[in-house]
User: What shape does this take?
Amino acid sequence: EVQLVESGGGFVKPGESLRLSCAASGITFSDAWMSWVRQAPGKGLEWVARIKSKTYGETIDYAAPVKGRFTISRDDSKNMLFLQMNSLKTEDAALYYCTSHFDYWGQGTLVSVSS
Amino acid sequence: QTVVTQEPSLTVSPGGTVTLTCASNTGAVTSDYYPNWFLQKPGQTPRALVYSTSNKHSWTPARFSGSLLGGKAALTLSGVQPEDEADYYCLLWYGGAWVFGGGTRLTVL
Assistant: This one.
């Protein structure tokens, strides 16, 4: 059974940082292209970042609103995906999902940003 | 700025057929955009339905089909069931970024 379990969400003030984690099981993580997708309360889905597998050079892409502030990374030895979020803004508040190839999704971790 | 447009809402009768579309402000959507479709019910995680235009996942019901139609990506539901009532999102690849559509709320009435 595939499981993606996000953690690390919380309540922060604008300008602060958070690091999200996603623990994967039931998939060959090292082969997976992993993404973070977010959803603000009552809003639609927004793609945040994607990291390819090592075979594909761990190529990384970011959505324009987060480029330069967020960093996606992975640890294949631990089957873990990360999202380092710096200089957080109120508009970054959302439920953050981890997804493998957009096939499998976690339950999400909630990030709240408010002064 | 890249904008992906879906119908905000559609209504269909049980047993009917409905087509949801996904358009790009950059021009016609082709298979090079690798269209994906997802379903999300209230309070639930998104569920993948279709990838790369028309490929279904093992769990995707046969009544769902993806295609390209008139310069847009399309998701057709044939023989709609009450449980198909949900929000549907398309996702397109722009060669450096993925962009979701705003979603279509499908009501089965």
Summary: The mean pLDDT of chain B is 97. The interface with chain A takes residues 36, 38, 40, 45-48, 51, 57, 87, 89, 91, 96-103 of chain B (CB under 8 Å).
